[in-house]
């Protein structure tokens, strides 16, 4: 027991030294570097299209469903055999089909499933294409122009996705 | 690119990056733990802590060092959370409740990083930095130190000295983890990971919580810790904004555990001894990836709980990396995985975290399993088993068995009690077999110091906070004490010469034996429990 107490005191002292080094100096050094021009705006997520939040109005593209309670992030954590949740997904599918005026079989997976973060900024090109006619109608923009904006915001090396946050801002800019 | 090709390319990129880093980092770590001299920074730390860095310790003193340091860590981290309201950057989130503060303190000190709290609502930046970030480093360095001590047990002879815990701890921190984490954090910021002292950022009229993410993200992955700065962990776009950050984070998770096999080979003076361990880890890891990936690609709702930018392959690779090491960070929600995919992630932990396992913990766990494998081989041929020139007698095999059996004992006891408690029903997020898997996964994660979760389960009642806390403690420290005892008795022996009767431990025979031991021990222990949870769900 003496030995344990002695080692605990030594442990406490070295922990204090580490707290200064790793808990104060290290994060502040990283933060300091993140103030450099070029990194600063990213570090603050300023003007960010990293995350999506739903926007009111028919003239915007809808992001994926979210199970998050802002400002916190999070997902549904529902298993695939959860019957209650299967009903929720079916209701979402019907709602999307109704909103876009298409058959339920044309509604893609990402339109009815919640992402892990609840802030997923992306939708699939299929889901974007599905929304183009409605967005064009509600925003008064020509379908061709909306389609071009979608194409301009479609990216990805391994997975092709459409950034819905940036896309909606482009819709705003075009409508002005 | 089709998803299959895209996934294979991503696996290829991660493997290639690991291959490039393997030799330089492995050799660097071997030099660090063999070095005679101390750097200026280290000398300053030793002077401040009043530690004699040149005093070598017996195994028991080394173990008291680990326990004393961890005990001090738990006390300090508990207190820091309990007085959060007087610290800066707390954003009015208040003092953390006692049960939650205990669970979180144990969780981060044991390198588990199980999170019963929602970070955005509970923790401010000060606790994240001076509390959690510090333990992200030092809990990983403890694993490195214990692994180093065990290797010294094999390489030294006729001594009762295993090195100095404080020196190993400090060197692992300042010469290995700190420089890589610093560079990693800057690279992550360049690719879009955030680093802000503000509490949140306005996005199209709504506030989304922000934090000093990058500095903790880097060490969270590198130290195989896994505790998210934000609730969605590495699924959150601020922690993991794109396809490339995803690959960088997977690389950081695997970097040290994989490279340590090279370090091991260098330290024992035969690099092939390290390669064979890497081969076993790699075969099991890749097989488990195939299972998770296939299962998820063929699920009913493959995108539920997954981020579109990662897709199924990018999520499956991350899930395999995080559960095959003791990391526990997630970029997708394992609770929404299929029966087979989620079951495979669970099985990865039930292997005992050695494919490739956590920083240091993976190496010492697979070495313990190698002792068991050689013991089994010895029984088959009726000869006293040897490994790396040391005889494996009653003492050594007993220590190895205690180390291996601690995790299943606390896991099954905890999960068994939780399953019959009336209060558990309200804690579950899914009915049926999937609900049982939520319980099993929680106790597997705690007992293996992984930290990932079937996160739908609500673990904030007193039973879960305290029982999971105890599982983390026993799952961490019983094996460590047993491993150090094993190291002590190995170091005391003299080396036995290689003879015609010695089973070589660098060839395919040994690799098969070791793979068999890893799989069989887990299968014999857990098949009944798995049959009621993930297997039952997969068959529905």
Automatic annotation (TrEMBL), chain A:
It comes from the Bacteria. The chain crosses the membrane at residues 12-33. GO terms for cellular component: membrane. The keyword Cell membrane applies. GO terms for molecular function: ATP binding; P-type potassium transmembrane transporter activity. The keyword Cell cycle does not apply. Keywords: ATP-binding, Cell membrane, Ion transport, Membrane, Nucleotide-binding, Potassium, Potassium transport, Transmembrane, Transmembrane helix, Transport. InterPro entries: KdpC. This is K+-transporting ATPase ATPase C chain. It comes from Lentzea xinjiangensis. The lineage of its organism: Bacteria, Bacillati, Actinomycetota, Actinomycetes, Pseudonocardiales.
UniProtKB/TrEMBL annotation, chain B:
One of its GO terms (molecular function) is P-type potassium transmembrane transporter activity. It is a multi-pass membrane protein. Coiled coil: none annotated. The chain crosses the membrane at residues 62-80, 137-155, 176-197, 244-263, 275-295, 363-385, 397-421, 473-492, 513-536. The keyword Lyase does not apply. GO terms for cellular component: plasma membrane. It is found in: Cell membrane. Keywords: Cell membrane, Ion transport, Membrane, Potassium, Potassium transport, Transmembrane, Transmembrane helix, Transport. It holds the Pfam family KdpA. InterPro entries: KdpA. Belongs to the KdpA family. NCBIfam families: kdpA. Part of the high-affinity ATP-driven potassium transport (or Kdp) system, which catalyzes the hydrolysis of ATP coupled with the electrogenic transport of potassium into the cytoplasm. This subunit binds the extracellular potassium ions and delivers the ions to the membrane domain of KdpB through an intramembrane tunnel. The system is composed of three essential subunits: KdpA, KdpB and KdpC. This is Potassium-transporting ATPase potassium-binding subunit. It comes from Lentzea xinjiangensis. The lineage of its organism: Bacteria, Bacillati, Actinomycetota, Actinomycetes, Pseudonocardiales.
């Amino acid at each position: 027991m003496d030995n344990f107490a002695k080692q605990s005191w030594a442990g406490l002292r070295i922990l204090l030294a580490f707290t200064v080094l790793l808990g104060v100096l290290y994060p502040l050094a990283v933060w300091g570097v993140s103030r450099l021009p070029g990194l600063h705006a990213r570090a603050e997520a300023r003007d960010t299209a990293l995350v999506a939040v739903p926007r009111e109005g028919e003239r915007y593209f809808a992001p994926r469903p979210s199970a998050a309670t802002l400002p916190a992030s999070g997902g549904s954590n529902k298993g695939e055999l959860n019957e209650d949740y299967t009903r929720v997904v079916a209701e979402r599918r019907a709602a999307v089909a109704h909103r876009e005026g298409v058959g339920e079989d044309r509604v893609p997976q990402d339109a009815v499933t919640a992402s892990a973060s609840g802030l997923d900024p992306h939708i699939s090109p299929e889901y974007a294409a599905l929304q183009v006619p409605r967005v064009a109608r509600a925003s008064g923009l020509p379908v061709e122009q909306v389609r071009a904006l979608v194409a301009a915001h479609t990216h990805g090396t391994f997975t092709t996705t459409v950034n819905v946050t940036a896309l909606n801002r482009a819709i705003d800019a075009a409508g002005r | 690119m089709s998803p299959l090709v895209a996934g294979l390319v991503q696996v290829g990129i991660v493997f290639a990056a690991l291959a490039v880093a393997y030799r330089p980092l492995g050799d660097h770590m071997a030099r660090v733990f063999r070095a005679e001299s101390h750097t200026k920074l280290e000398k300053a730390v030793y002077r401040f802590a009043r530690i004699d860095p040149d005093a070598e310790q017996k195994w028991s003193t080394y173990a008291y060092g680990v326990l004393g340091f961890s005990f001090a860590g738990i006390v300090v981290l508990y207190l820091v959370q309990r007085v959060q309201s007087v610290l800066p950057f707390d954003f009015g989130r208040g003092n953390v409740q006692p049960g939650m503060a205990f669970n979180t303190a144990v969780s981060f000190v044991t390198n588990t990083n199980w999170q019963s709290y929602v970070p955005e609502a509970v923790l401010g930046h000060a606790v994240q930095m001076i509390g959690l970030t510090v333990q992200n480093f030092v809990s990983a360095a403890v694993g490195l130190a214990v692994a180093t001590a065990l290797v010294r047990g094999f390489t030294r002879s006729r001594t009762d000295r295993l090195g100095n815990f404080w020196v190993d701890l400090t060197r692992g921190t300042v010469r290995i983890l700190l420089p890589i984490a610093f560079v990693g954090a800057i690279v992550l910021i360049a690719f879009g990971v955030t680093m802000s002292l503000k509490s949140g950022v306005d996005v199209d009229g709504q506030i989304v919580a922000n934090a000093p993410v990058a500095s903790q993200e880097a060490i969270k992955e590198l130290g195989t810790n896994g505790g998210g700065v934000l609730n969605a962990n590495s699924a959150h776009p601020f922690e993991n904004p794109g396809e490339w950050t995803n690959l960088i984070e997977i690389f950081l998770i695997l970097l040290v555990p994989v490279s340590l096999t090279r370090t091991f080979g260098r330290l024992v003076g035969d690099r092939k001894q390290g390669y064979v361990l890497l081969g076993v880890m790699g075969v099991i890891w890749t097989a488990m990836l195939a299972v998770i990936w296939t299962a998820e690609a063929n699920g009913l709702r493959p995108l539920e709980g997954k981020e579109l930018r990662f897709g199924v392959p990018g999520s499956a690779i991350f899930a395999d990396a995080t559960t095959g090491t003791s990391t526990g960070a997630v970029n997708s929600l394992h609770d929404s995985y299929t029966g087979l995919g989620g079951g495979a992630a669970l099985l990865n932990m039930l292997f005992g975290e050695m494919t490739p396992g956590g920083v240091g913990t993976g190496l010492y766990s697979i070495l313990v399993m190698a002792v068991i494998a050689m013991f089994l081989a010895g029984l088959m041929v009726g000869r006293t088993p040897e490994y790396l020139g040391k005889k494996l007698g009653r003492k050594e095999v007993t220590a190895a068995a205690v180390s291996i059996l601690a995790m299943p004992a606390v896991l099954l006891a905890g999960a068994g009690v939780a399953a019959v408690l009336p209060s558990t029903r309200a804690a579950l997020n899914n009915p049926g077999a999937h609900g049982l898997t939520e319980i099993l996964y929680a106790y597997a994660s705690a007992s293996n110091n992984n930290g990932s979760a079937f996160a739908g389960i609500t673990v904030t009642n007193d039973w879960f906070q305290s029982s999971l806390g105890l599982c983390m403690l026993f799952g961490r420290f019983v094996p460590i004490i047993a491993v150090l005892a094993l190291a002590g008795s190995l170091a005391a022996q003299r080396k036995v010469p290689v003879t015609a009767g010695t089973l070589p431990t660098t060839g395919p025979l040994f690799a098969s034996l070791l793979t068999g031991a890893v799989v069989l021990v887990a299968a014999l222990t857990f098949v009944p429990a798995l049959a009621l949870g993930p297997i039952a769900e997969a068959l529905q």
